[in-house]
Amino acid sequence: MLERLTKKEDFERVRRDGARWRGKYCTLNAARALTRADEAEPRTRVGYITPRALGSAVKRNRARRLLREATRQLSASIAPGWDIVLIAQPAIIVESARMPQVQEDLLWLLNRAHLIPTAPIAR
Q1: What residues does 88 pair with on adjacent strands?
Q2: Please, which of 20, 29, 117, 121 could form a disulfide with 85 given CB 3.0 to 4.6 Å?
């Protein structure tokens, strides 16, 4: 289960200490999550940034909803123990991106970032 990344300090830490991969519709920043002593298992948290350069609040909210839903659909396959920040790119609005396109872009980014554990390929 994914949790939300909400604190400014966490966003800054991920952007400062993490690695970055850029896709067509979003940029993915990822850093190892800081673990607490009371946690039984590592958790993955995701935060979303939709810059004002994307346009009006309606456009920014649409971009955020697309990213959030794509993340939710892929959440079962994301490795635990990471803090992830997704930054919407202008192409998500300019090209009127649909869910399958955003999901494919996010899956490609997660694979590049090695955040999806690979299973042996069946032949």
Answers
A1: 26
A2: 29
Strand partners, 48: 86
Does this model's pTM top 0.85? My answer is yes
- Do 30 and 112 contact (CB within 8 A), yes or no? no
What are the pLDDT digits (tens) for 19-73? 999 999 999 999 999 877 666 778 899 999 999 999 999 999 999 999 999 999 9
Inter-residue contact 45 to 25 (CB < 8 Å): no
Alpha-helical regions (H) of 1-123: 8-17, 57-74, 91-94, 99-112
26 touches 109 (CB < 8 A):
yes
